[in-house]
Amino acid sequence: MQVSNGPNPLLGILASTAAQPTSANPVPSAEPASKPDVHVANPVIKGQIPAKLDFQALPSQPAYEQAVKQLESRVEADLALQNTNKTQPLYLRQNYQSRLLTQPQPTGKGTVVLFHGYTAGPWQFKEAEELFFKAGYNVYVPRIPGHGFMKPNGTPTGEKMVDTWEVKTYDDFVAQVYADVSALGGPVQAIGLSGGANLALRMGERFSDLKSVTAMAPYIGPDDKLKPTDGLLHLVDRYTPIKLSYLLDMKNYNKNTWVSADNPMPHTQGTLNNAYAMFSVGSRVDKVQVPMQVFTTEGDVLAGEKPVEKLLQRSGGLQKHGWYHFEAPDKVPHAMASPMQNTEPGQAVALWQMVFDTIEHGELNTRLPK
Hints:
Layout: H1 12-19, E1 45-48, H2 61-81, E2 91-92, E3 99-101, E4 111-115, H3 126-134, E5 138-141, E6 149-150, H4 168-182, E7 188-193, H5 195-206, E8 212-216, H6 226-239, H7 245-248, H8 272-283, E9 292-297, H9 305-314, E10 322-326, H10 347-361, E11 363-366
Parallel strand pairs: 4-5, 4-7, 7-8, 8-9, 9-10
Antiparallel strand pairs: 1-11, 2-6, 3-5
């Protein structure tokens, strides 16, 4: 897959990183500092992922090319689902296909995996994939199971999205992605947004040789009140003939409406059951084994401060991890990864500068909520 020919605001990160030491501070408020009610942000604390000696040999060129072919087959399967010249019960919408960028030879930099948000698609990382590819990494942006389908008349449908009783599908997906990219050789680093952050966290919980996890606005709820409900729902569904989660299938999360096939920011809406299945992936993560950089934003009801704080504590605390919280004046949305959604001037670049510093230099950034 070729990189986009359009303008990419994130590519300036490569130039600034090469020219001088990086600065991870986001763009400050435009309000003059002389005013008495000026907002004063919490200080940014820098941390570092400990250097790890890794003498794992890279694969031979033939083995590398075979691993690339395996990943290309995943992308080709998505492209086949977009073929409207062939009669199919459902089609995959444009901008929903998995995306892959690979170096011509095995690279010691390894692979960056980018998990898109719940209801969204790989398009959320169009700019970021180019940033990491041009920095020398392999990049894989898989489509999350069940996302992106439409009926033959062009109406989006969430009917293939994962239900709560099928949540193992997500575990199998994470394991398959990890196996596929590990075969390319070099370290693997996972980045995710919202529901995709849940998948990245799950990967970091299961695979201790993952190099790092970056979780943007993980979809783990506003507080811990939902966690007992999730446990009860799981137990009742699994061990009794009563399927409480079926009731959640009766309520749409949001409504699917027809949009143009070439919409640059398509979404697929499922039911509350589907949304709860994705929530449960993140809420059930007990302890992430690898260095973790978390990003949250003020007022985000999907990624609350308390569950993030408790996850970090269970995983070793801020001695091992970073937690950067965007405050209200930053105006950073939950869907912070794409410059098409994170539109406040400078904030998408500031976010990806910090992410790039984590991936490239092992740098961790902490600015705690007030």
